[in-house]
Design a protein that fits this description.
With about 350 residues, the protein is mainly alpha-helical. The chain has 14 helices and four strands. The protein has one domain. The strands form two sheets. It has a two-stranded antiparallel sheet with strand order 1-2. It has a two-stranded antiparallel ribbon with strand order 3-4. Helix 8 packs antiparallel against helix 11. Belongs to the cytochrome ubiquinol oxidase subunit 2 family. It is found in: Cell membrane. It comes from Klugiella xanthotipulae. Pfam families: Cyt_bd_oxida_II (PF02322).
Length: about 350
C-alpha cells in the first residue's frame, strides 16, 4: 500500500483516538446539570476527568499537525471552508479548559456556577459541530477546482446545517453524552454513580435510534461506492456493540459498557472514513471536483520522513497515555471530594 493511503488511515486513527478519549470528556461536561445536586457532586464529576482531559485533547493537536503535513491541500481547503465552525469549536475548547482551572478559585457561588455552565457549553458545541462537519464531508460539499490546481469551498456555515449534517452532529453529540455518562458511572460511587447508570440507560436508547438513522442514511448515500460492503460491515458492527453497551450498562457492568462504547466510535468513524475513501473531500457541485487522497497528499519524501517519526514516537505516546490512565484508575469517591480541595 502506498504511503498516501497509509497516512490517510493514520490520520483516521488519530481522529478516532481523539473522539474516543475527548468524547467521554465532552459527555462528562454535558452531564453536570443532569447528575449533580450540589457542588460536591459537581466536583466529584469534574474530578473524574481532571487528570486526563488536557492529555486527551492533544490527540486533536497531533491529528491536525499530521493532516497539515501529510495532506496540505485537504487541511487548507477544509480549514478555510469550515473556518467559522472550527473557530466556534476552538472558542468552546478554550472556554472549557479555562473553566476547569478557574471554577475552584473561591470567588463565590455565582462565580463557580458561571464556570460550570461554561464547561457544559464548551462540552456541548464541539461534538455537535464535529459531527456536522464530518457528515458533510462524506455527503459532499459545494467545492470547485481553481486555476492553480487547488480546491475552493464555495458554501457557507449555513450550507453545513442541512438535515444529514445536523443528524450527524446530533448523533456524535449523543454518542459523546452517553459515553461520558457511562464513564461517570465507572469512575464514581454513591448517588452520582446510581444517577449516571440510570441516565445512561435513557440516553442510550435515544443514541441507538439516532445512530441507526444516521448509519442507514450513510449506507443509502454510498450504495454505488466501491467500499459499500465494508461500510455496511462497519456500520453493522457499530450498531451491535452500541446495543451491547446499553445492555451492559443496564446490568450494571460499567467497565464492559465503556469498552463497547469505545468500539462503537471505532466502527462508526471507520465507516465514515471508508465512505470518504478514496477521497478526502467529496464535491457536491461535480464529482470531478472531488479531492482525492493522492491529489491532496504531500511528496513521497515528506511522507517517508513522517512515517519514521511516527514509528519512533507513536508507541511512546500510547505507552504514556496508558500509564496515566492506570495511575488514575481508581474511583473518585464523594468522601475524598469533601476531605480535599478540587484539582
Amino acid at each position: 500500500m502506498e504511503l498516501q493511503y497509509i497516512w490517510f488511515f493514520i490520520v483516521g486513527f488519530l481522529l478516532i483516538g481523539y473522539f474516543v478519549l475527548d468524547g467521554f470528556d465532552f459527555g462528562v461536561g454535558m452531564s453536570i446539570p443532569f447528575l449533580s445536586k450540589d457542588d460536591t457532586d459537581r466536583r466529584q464529576i469534574i474530578n473524574t476527568i481532571g487528570p486526563v482531559w488536557d492529555l486527551n485533547e492533544t490527540w486533536l493537536i497531533v491529528a491536525g499537525a499530521c493532516l497539515f503535513a501529510a495532506f496540505p491541500e485537504w487541511y487548507a481547503t477544509m480549514f478555510s471552508g469550515f473556518y467559522l465552525a472550527l473557530l466556534l469549536i476552538l472558542v468552546a475548547l478554550i472556554l472549557r479548559g479555562v473553566s476547569f482551572e478557574y471554577r475552584h478559585q473561591g470567588k463565590g457561588e455565582k462565580w463557580t456556577k458561571w464556570f460550570d455552565w461554561f464547561i457544559v457549553i464548551g462540552s456541548f458545541l464541539p461534538p455537535l459541530l464535529w459531527g456536522t462537519a464530518f457528515a458533510n464531508l462524506i455527503q459532499g460539499v459545494p467545492m470547485e477546482t481553481m486555476d492553480n490546481g487547488g480546491w475552493l469551498y464555495t458554501g457557507t456555515l449555513f450550507t453545513l446545517l442541512n438535515p444529514y449534517g445536523l443528524l450527524g452532529g446530533l448523533t456524535v453529540l449523543l454518542l459523546c453524552f452517553t459515553h461520558g455518562v457511562v464513564f461517570v458511572a465507572l469512575k464514581t460511587d454513591g448517588d452520582v454513580r446510581v444517577r449516571a447508570r440510570a441516565l445512561a440507560v435513557k440516553s442510550g436508547l435515544i443514541t441507538i435510534l439516532a445512530a441507526a438513522a444516521f448509519l442507514i442514511w450513510t449506507i443509502i448515500q454510498h450504495l454505488q461506492s466501491d467500499t459499500i460492503l465494508l461500510i455496511v460491515v462497519f456500520s453493522a458492527l457499530a450498531a451491535v456493540v452500541l446495543i451491547g453497551a446499553w445492555l451492559a450498562n443496564f446490568k450494571g457492568r460499567e467497565g464492559v459498557a465503556f469498552t463497547l462504547h469505545v468500539f462503537t466510535f471505532i466502527f462508526a468513524l471507520g465507516a465514515i472514513f471508508l465512505a470518504l475513501f478514496p477521497n478526502v473531500m467529496i464535491s457536491s457541485t461535480d464529482p470531478a471536483f472531488s479531492m482525492s487522497i493522492s491529489g491532496a497528499s504531500s511528496s513521497a519524501m515528506t511522507l517517508e520522513f513522517m512515517t519514521w517519526v511516527a514509528v519512533c514516537t507513536l508507541p511512546l505516546v500510547l505507552a504514556y497515555q496508558a500509564w496515566t490512565y492506570w495511575i488514575f484508575r481508581k474511583r473518585v469517591k464523594r468522601t475524598d471530594i469533601v476531605a480535599a480541595p478540587v484539582h
